[in-house]
Amino acid sequence: MKPFHFKQFSIQQDACAMKVSLDACLLGALCQVEHSKRILDIGTGTGLLALMAAQRSDAQIDAVELDEAAATQAQENVDNSPFLSQVTVHRQNIKSYDATLAYDVILCNPPFFSGHLKGPDPQRNQARHNDGLSFEDLSLCISQQLHTNGTAWVLLPCSEFQRFSAHAHKANLLTDQQWLIASRPQKSPHRTVIALKHQAQVKSEPSPKSFYVHHENGPHYTDEFKALLCDYYLKL
Question: DSSP states of 150-187 as a string?
Fold first, then answer.
């Protein structure tokens, strides 16, 4: 499989179950990392989100990955990027990961399918299904690792938002911002990006913002998409 080339780094992904996706790129571009000092990437996979965050910040980034092959490839991608001094890859289960200091920003594109039919590939199942990292476990990990004033950014299918939010609320986390992502204006949203904060930091429930990737007619990207991804995508 060919690497995915961005403007400032490339992603090798042949050893990872989950490849570079447009949805993950949107999460990496929407998250607000510019003024952060410490960032945690939960389930880094190829290292995509960690490298996108490094490009837009001076933060020290801990990228945690359970799968050995994915962690090895993430390290390769970091080693071959301009951001080696910023990103540290940890081959570890996030449930046993214990940082000495809390994080300003947490990023996560989690395994998000609950009770869905699994395929024959165990590595892909681990990356897609939340048996090993339930929404309850993930919410507790975020709550424990997030600084009092920090923000966690999570990508989910719209169908899983309410289920995840219920567990996040039990962990004293509330949604502070939300984007509903659809391929076109006439299509229903398929993914949501949410920003979570500790409950005491959220004043009111946010109004979701719609985000469209393509114009209503034709394959062209919307101006909003191009503005968001222009620092990353080669052809924007």
Answer: EEEEEEEEGGGHHHHHHHHHHTTEEEEEEEEEESSTTS
